[in-house]
Amino acid sequence: MTHNETSEDEERARRDLLHEAKVVSALGDHPHLPMIFGVVTKASPLCLVTQFHGVQQESVTLHQAADNNAVTKANCISIFKKICSVLDHVHSKGYLHNDIRGNNVVLERPSASGEFSPVLIDFEKSLKFSSVTLYRRNGTVMKCKRKSYLAPEVVSERLYSVASDIFSLGRMLKAISSLLGFYERVRELVKMSTRDKPSETLAFMFSLVRLLMLN
């Protein structure tokens, strides 16, 4: 029984890995998406082979950088503008990310004196718009350790949409801005993105983040 369970787990991990590779490949080139070179499925550990994105040979997530005050407020707002841009690209390709949170954004810095730049990762839970209805009908429950990032309609009905991605983006903005001490500056933006019926477009998020950068 243990052997069978292990085999099932490995097969599930293999399917998830291939799914993520397929999604990232379908999204194409973008400066804030991972660059994939291949997939290891015939030997352990199973993994995606991607370009390394990090700082001084270390992987750094947005949450880690904010928690350690390693990123400035101004740079953080710039980072969110770029996250809006890449998420808009993901949606334009017909996909939802479905797991947007601070640990699924890694940072890189081209030079020691340069600003951090984000890379959106972890597309294991990503779905095409056309797959959402089928996903709900099959009753698959999306697992997430941080349910606070999930929109209410996702928790209650498994109703995934562009709006639920925006909700998660707003929750992430709230968490990161709170760590860095400028939540009051983005409070209204967070409220708009996490209300019961958020906008179905990232345009307002993108515009407001740009305004924040000018202030």
Automatic annotation (TrEMBL):
GO terms for cellular component: nucleus. GO terms for biological process: mitotic DNA damage checkpoint signaling. PROSITE patterns: PROTEIN_KINASE_DOM, PROTEIN_KINASE_TYR. SUPFAM superfamilies: Protein kinase-like (PK-like). Residues 1-215 form the Protein kinase domain. This is Protein kinase domain-containing protein. It comes from the Eukaryota. It comes from Pocillopora meandrina. GO terms for molecular function: ATP binding; protein serine/threonine kinase activity.
